[in-house]
Every structure is written in C-alpha cells, then in structure tokens.
Amino acid sequence: MATDQGETPLSTTATVSIVVTMSDNAPPRFDKQEYMTELLENQPVFTNVFTMMADCRSSVIYTIIAGNEKDVFAINPNSGVIFTKKMVDYEMDHGFNLTIRGTSVIHSYAVAYLFVHVIDANDNAPEFVHMEYVGNITEGAKVGSIVLDGKAEPLVVKATDKDSSLNAILMYEIRDDFAKKFIIIDPNTGALRTAVEIDHEVISKIEMTVEVWDMGKPQLRSRSPAKVTVYINDVNDTPPQFSAQSYKAEVLLPTYKDVIVSQTVATDADTGINSKLQYSIVKGNSEKRFRISKFSGAVYIDNEVDIGDAYTLTIEVYDGVFRSQALLNISISKPVQHPFHFTQEVYVASVHENSPMEKTLTVLQVADRALNQQYTFSLLNGQGKFEMGRTSGVLTTTGVLFDREEINIYNLVVEVGYFCSIVNF
After folding, report:
1. Cβ within 8 Å of residue 260, ≥6 positions away
2. CA–CA separation, 74 vs 82, rounded Å?
3. What is the CATH number of domain 341-424?
4. Structure pTM?
5. Nearest one of 47, 36, 53, 38 to 83, comparing CA atoms
6. Sequence ranges of the domains in the chain
7. Left (φ > 0), alpha (ψ -120 to 50) or beta: where does 80 sit?
8. Could you tell me which CATH number the domain at 29-119 has?
9. Are 210 and 170 within 8 A, CB to CB?
10. In three state form, how does the secondary structure of the chain look?
11. Under CATH, which architecture does the 127-233 domain have?
12. pLDDT tens by residue, the chain, 425 residues
C-alpha cells in the first residue's frame, strides 16, 4: 500500500506475488523420510520394486548405501527405480530395510529409507515330522478317548510347513475308510481319539495312513502320507473256557505214580499275561490220588496204592480274574486180555547221571507176531526224560540230565494196545 503526504492523504494498494524457488545450490529433498512397499517372493530377476524420487534443481544420482548386504536389489542411478537382482525367498528373508541416498551434481544429498516387506507365496508343501507313528489305546475305552504314545502322552501326528499365514495352516485326514470306523483325527491338531469302544478280541491292531495339506492357494499336500499304527491293549475281560465241559479217562491196572490220566485243555481269548492260565483240582481228590500240572492241565496218578474204581474230579482254570470249571470222570479197570503180550513183564536198563547224550535203553517186543499186526507203543509217564518209539518199541532218553541224588529209580509204564507192562530203571 502507498500513501501521499497531502492535507488529505490518499492511498492505493497493489498485489505482489512472490515465488520462492529452489536455489541451484539446494540439496535434493525426498517428500518422505520413510517409504514402504511389498514384494511377492519368487518373482523373476529384474522385477521392479519401487521408484525413489527426490526434488532437486539439478539431476540426482540414486544409490543404495545400506541394507543390501545380500546384493538382492539394484537401483537405476538416474531414474531411482529399484529392481531385483536375485529371486527373493520368504523363508530366508521376511523383509529388507534399504537406505537410499540421492546426490546432486554439486554433491549435496538427501537420505530416505525403504522397507521392502516380502509376501509369502505357497511354495512349500507340508512335511511330516515323522513318517511313522505308533500308539496304543486300552480296549473298552470310552468314545473320544485319547490315543497315547509309548511315553503315555497323547499321540499327535505332526507336520510342519515353511510357509506362513494361511499357507502354513494345516489340515489332517485319515485316508483309510476302515480305520475311520475306530479312530478319528483332529483335522487341525493331528491328535487321535477313539470313534467307538474297541474290543481287543475283535481287532488288536489298527493300521492307517494320514494325509496333510495346507490352506494356501493352491493347496499343497505332503509328498507321502504318514503311517500310523494303533495297538489295542488287552484287558482281562474274557473268562477262560475248557475245550469240553466234561472229560472221560480210563486208567488200566496196574498203574503207577506219574502215569498220565488225561490232558485237559482251556483257552482264553485274551492275550499276553491275561491269557496265562493256571489249573487246579478243586473237588473229588480228597485222597490225593491225582495231581494236575499247574500250567499244562495234564492230570497224573499221584498215589496208586489201593486206588478205587472211579473218580470224578472238578478241574478249575484261572486267568487271574475269571475262573471256569470242567469235570474229569476217571474209571479204573483191569486190561482186557488179548492174544499178544510183551515178551517180558519187566525190562531193566541203566543210564549215567549228568549225561546230556540221548541214549537207547532197550527195545520192547511183543510176542505172537504170527498175527502179522502192527503194534503201537505209548509211554505213559515219560516225565520229559524218556521217549518211546511209537511203532518200534525203542525206549530212549531225551538228553535231559539225570541226578541220582534226586531220583535213582524210575518206574515207567508202557502200553501196547490194551496191555501194560512195567519197566524198572
């Protein structure tokens, strides 16, 4: 505004525009101090990443002065375009923090920062931590019970994925339809549980394969499925059973101690220790005429003196929890006379104690072979130390050591047809 000095001052105004321009000597200037951009991994070399621009009256030369130690990036010094020199792998580098300098022709400069965030691509298939898993579950466990590993910890089928975010979220599935009837897998964690109550006597082992895939796009699956074996631990829930409810046996006179009377047999559908059976005579043996092998169920003569005509024994088998019983009916009778007989009523042989060698002791012969018949021989009380040739009549030792201080005489009973003879050792 301008004003004169008259008696009555007059004034006027004018508009003045002032343009501020950059000095030719001013340094370059970036419009931001920090920049950010994203780069998808596995992009080809020479992919443009970002363009840096600085204001300056003169031309600017751009350089990367820090953050490019792996020599992944390069910058066009004139245009400021940053591009890749190498393919970037997210699993190796999640990001880069580059320092960019713009320098003018008079060597003044400005510095800005560019953070390159690497975006994960779904380029890694999941991999199982182990290719084989083994677990167990107790039979009869409630539905939904956890399958355990060998350390009694929950069995978890585990896989890993080198990718991130959705690309690393994994889903698990049992491939075998048969196994799915018994076992279910948590699709998110890989933990295994029972789908039904499982009976060991129906199925003792479940084998299956488990597959895993990620939730990326495209979805990637493991190269090979994992093998999982689940053993069903047996519980003693089944009582033993005899092969028959009653047995019949005939003992021919004369008879002697340790002559076998009958072989009782019981089985148990359980396994392992739950199927270990023990036999006993619980009734009918008040005179102690008989004894039973605790583990084999074989019944033997224990006292033959003044033995009666008939006995009914109650045999019991026990598996540690359950008991079962069967009857053994024993008749004592004299042998029927036949037109054949042993050439001797008594055979005598000897054996050295502590000898491990099998030895032929004697040969039993039957008279009246004019009938031209084939005879069969049975050793009724071999006690594991003697054997009899079924058709030859040859009596041998088995190689089990003899101890004279324990037993110095063995009375063996051999049967041919229905006729018995005594052999004394």
Report:
1. 298, 299, 300, 380, 381
2. 6
3. 2.60.40.60
4. 0.61
5. 47
6. 29-119, 127-233, 241-333, 341-424
7. left
8. 2.60.40.60
9. no
10. CEECCCCCCCEECCCCCCCCCCCCCCCCEECCCEEEEEEECCCCCCCEEEECCEECCCCEEEEEEECCCCCCEEECCCCCEEEECCCCCCCCCCEEEEEEEEEECCCCEEEEEEEEEEECCCCCCCEECCCEEEEEEECCCCCCCECECCCCCECECCEECCCCHHHHCEEEEECCHHHHCCEEECCCCCEEEECCCCCCCCCCEEEEEEEEEECCCCCCECCCCEEEEEEEECCCCCCCEECCCEEEEEEECCCCCCCEEEECCEECCCCHHHHCCEEEEEECCCCCCEEECCCCCEEEECCCCCCCCEEEEEEEEECCCCEEEEEEEEEEECCCCCCCEECCCEEECCCCCCCCCCCEEEECCEECHHHCCCCCEEECCCCCCEEECCCCCEEEECCCCCCCCCCCCCEEEEEECCEEEEEEC
11. Sandwich (2.60)
12. 778 777 778 888 878 777 655 555 788 999 999 999 999 999 999 999 999 999 998 899 999 999 999 999 999 999 999 999 999 999 899 999 999 999 998 899 999 999 999 999 999 999 999 999 999 999 999 999 999 999 999 999 999 999 988 999 999 999 999 999 999 999 999 999 999 999 999 999 999 999 999 999 999 999 999 999 999 999 999 999 999 999 999 998 888 899 999 999 999 999 889 999 999 999 999 999 999 999 999 999 999 999 999 999 999 999 999 999 999 999 999 877 777 788 898 999 999 899 888 999 999 988 875 566 788 899 989 888 999 999 899 999 999 999 999 889 988 988 887 444 444 44
What are the tokens at 307?
């033995």
**Tokens 């964690």 belong to residue:** 189
Cα–Cα dist 407/424, whole Å = 13
CATH topology of domain 241-333: Immunoglobulin-like (2.60.40)
* Alpha carbon distances (Å) from 386 to 98, 150, 412: 94, 46, 9
